[in-house]
Amino acid sequence: MKKIVSGLIVTFFLISVGAVFFIWNQFAHSKNSNDPSEVIFEVKTGMSFPYVVRQLRSLGVVNNSSLFSLYAKVKGEAGKMKVGEYALRKDLMPGEVLTIINSGKSIGRDFTVPEGLSIYEIAEMYEEEGFGNQADFMKLVKDQDFIKNLTGQNLESLEGYLFPETYSVTKFTETKALISMMYQRFEKVWTEVEPQTKSSNLSKHQIVTLASIIEKETGAPEERPVISSVFHNRLKLGMRLQTDPTVIYGKADISGRVVINITRADLTTPTRYNTYTIPALPPGPIAAPSKEALLAAVQPAATDYLYFVSKNEGTHTFSKDYAGHLKAVKKFQLDPSAREGKSWRDLKKNRAKTSAEQPAPIEK
After folding, report:
1. 59/89 Cα distance (integer angstroms)
2. Which of 362, 83, 118, 342 lies closest to 246, judged by CA?
3. Rounded distance, CA 244 to CA 357, Å?
4. Contact call for residues 162 and 175 (beta carbons, < 8 A)
5. Same structural domain for residues 54 and 145?
6. Which of 113, 133, 154, 353 is 20 to 30 Å from 337 by CA-CA measure?
7. Are residues 219 and 341 in the same domain?
8. Are 78 and 152 members of one domain?
9. Mean of the pLDDT values across residues 257-275?
10. What digits encode the pLDDT tens for the residues 154-212?
């Protein structure tokens, strides 16, 4: 009788162990569900593991809180989660969920900086898209200690040195890290441009400054070298550049924000950047130039052009003398029919050209 009882106990124990093992194995190697939909979940500082499990259960990523917690403890993965923003699918297995929330690898987000934006516009976009604080961004790009440590140069700001590109960041990427990334990308591009600068009599800072103006005035990419030639020709003759984007930037330099519309009074109001009133390049860049604009600044087209006027759809007409310029102004700017229904956006550019589309004032 004792043997029978003992046998039954052993049998029951083995069956129980087998059942537990089966349930455990099924749980560990089964998907939570067949629903592949994605759930964005953020592990924040101070969250406990039990709290996270409960939240994942409520979101449908975990179907059994107790088994999941036990599984994590047995695997030695409980409490190893890292602060981050994670993309989780509802059809993941328990081990896959743990791997993700313990990885510390947050969701990558694209922060795209179009060419031709100023630091004021980049900072505004930075905040609007939820990456950080506009004021913090502006403080850093003008912080002399930070700039010196980052660049090794005594720059007034990082205007022109934050390369326009798409950057992969996370919700937790620090502002300083992003700015450093943008500057390092600029330096990488500059190493590709620098060999073409040997014949230029402009300094690096002046090249970046001129390139930023070319970028702001360019609607059609193929016009960059021609626009560059106009500015080079004017500089050689000691003529004022008379470019509207510098007027806009001069106002932003004072007010701290970009206002696109300018008046004739603005054109005659002196600022450090107003090239209608200063007979030279402004003291620094006014926007983020592309590689193509940097190259155009040191490789201008060979022309005799001294003027250009917008044709209201992104391209320009160029003139060698003032008489030709006045004819172009009359045709494309003073005639309302030449402007009606037209826009530089017809070129389907991905960025906003901020130069004011208005006729240049008559030179004295």
Report:
1. 10
2. 118
3. 9
4. no
5. no
6. 353
7. yes
8. no
9. 93
10. 999 999 999 999 999 998 999 999 999 999 999 999 999 999 999 899 999 999 999 99
Instruction: State how far the Cα of 361 lies from the Cα of 244, in Å rounded to an integer.
Output: 11
Length of the chain (residues): 364
CB-based contacts of 268, cutoff 8 Å, min separation 6: 276, 277
One-letter identity of residue 147: I
Domain assignment of residue 23, yes or no: no
For 276-306, give the DSSP string. Answer: TTSSS--SS-SS---HHHHHHHHS-------
In angstroms, the CA 355 to CA 142 distance is 24
Q: Which residue has the tokens 């806009």?
A: 248
Are 39 and 134 found together in one domain?
no
Give the 3-state secondary structure of residue 117: coil
Integer Cα distance of 194 and 298 in angstroms: 9
316, 327: one domain: yes
Chain segment 56-81, per-residue pLDDT in tens: 999 999 988 988 999 899 889 888 99
Cα–Cα distance, 310 to 333 (Å, whole number): 8
Q: Are residues 244 and 321 in the same domain?
A: yes
Task: Select from 192, 226, 261 the last residue of a domain.
Answer: 192
CA distances, 353 to each of 8, 178, 191, 310, 315 (Å): 85, 24, 27, 12, 12
What are the pLDDT digits (tens) for 50-61? Answer: 999 999 999 999
At 95, which CATH number?
3.30.1490.480
Among residues 50, 82, 107, which one ends one of the domains? 107
Q: How many CB atoms lie within 10 A of CB 199?
A: 7
What global pTM score does this model have? Answer: 0.81
One-letter amino acid for residue 271 of the chain: T
| CA atoms of 300 and 225, how far apart (whole Å) | 5
Residue 87 domain boundaries: 29-107
Q: Give domain status of residue 15, yes or no.
A: no
Q: What is the mean pLDDT of the chain?
A: 87
Among 47-56, 90-99, 139-148, 338-347, the minimum mean pLDDT is found in 338-347
Domain presence at residue 12: no
Q: Per-residue pLDDT for 259 more than 60?
A: yes
Q: How many domains does the chain have?
A: 3
